[in-house]
Amino acid sequence: MKNRKLNFAAILFAALGIVITWCAKYALYFFRDDMALNFLPLLLVNAALLLLFLIMWKKQLPKWVTVVSLVILAISFLIPLIFTVVNILNFPHFLNNLHTILPEIVVGAGLILVYMYYDKLVKSRKARITAIVLTATVIVSASCTTLACYLTSGTVVFDTGNMYTVEFISNRNGLGFVEVSRDGQTETYYHTEHGKRVAHTTIHQIEIPKEKLQGATYRPGVKSVLFTVSNQTFFGNTTYGQSIHFKSPANDEGATFFTVSDVHTQPGGAVKAIEKHFDELDFIVCLGDMVSFSGNRYDLTMLVDSMARLSKGALPVVFTRGNHELMGEGANAIEDYIPTPTGQFYYTFTYNNAYFIVNDMGADKPDDNRGFSACPTA
Known about the structure:
Layout: H1 4-23, H2 25-29, H3 40-58, H4 63-86, H5 91-100, H6 102-116, H7 118-123, H8 125-146, E1 156-159, E2 163-182, E3 185-190, E4 192-193, E5 196-197, E6 201-209, H9 210-213, E7 217-229, E8 232-240, E9 244-245, E10 257-260, H10 268-275, E11 283-286, H11 297-311, E12 316-319, H12 334-337, E13 347-351, E14 354-358
Parallel strand pairs: 1-12, 10-11, 11-12
Antiparallel strand pairs: 1-2, 2-3, 2-6, 2-7, 4-5, 7-8, 7-9, 13-14
Helix pairs in contact: 1-3, 1-4, 1-5, 3-4
């Protein structure tokens, strides 16, 4: 293509079209009830256009090819963009999907730039130095975001029967723990299962007796795992969350609780509503649809983080699934993220002299519904 700026813009928008179409896959699938919007053709079209514009960068093609390609590019770029903007409530899922393919985006962009400016890299010392500096910057940035351990969610305290289960999530595997302080004394509780400390997980669930946590101040932490050789585990940095004062029960009889549902990863309004009654509450009940889809670990992290924002880590949380928690590839993994007294999503619990039944209603769709990863019957 003679116009270098136009060619560069075409390459950029074709690449962006691929990213947007891929990242919008969850946001678009349920856009119209059960209708599956298949954007795979658009993905392939944008990939073909990207290849074509890269060829044009090196070789002049007929003018009509350029015109037709630009028209198709405009259409294939705008369609997923418009659907994504219209379905803006599912934007957090878009960002999560973007996060999962960031390494591929960085590597792909690097390869494309090397292809486009290879001649300058070979001839110009300044260009080579610039490329090396950019590469080093990317490597250092990637190391800073992956090597250091940090918490990726707030802290939730689930009511799991005789115990509270304190949960938080980290970016790296590690040993989760909670320091509980009262009257100048501090006790440390660790994530354990079957009598053994659990160090190789990003989902940290620490059981603490209710009487130990009520009215106390606690601080979550993770001791990250660098690597394990045979039976020897080597730990890296230790990271801490904020110190939180856990509330004492608000009532001696019965219970005052706040129910929340259908926030779809947008809990801001519910947070403000809860804040007005926070001091009066004994616990919070999340009735489902806290996320739009359980697509991957980022969606499930948002599920936990939404409940952390609602409770501020200072109130117990009771959770039951909604139909949207049943949607997506990660739906079967949700039990790893939500502790309950029985390990199931249907259970009972008592609070003072009040008795509660938590039901698991599933969804109002048949078992062979495509939206729930089922295969239609013949």
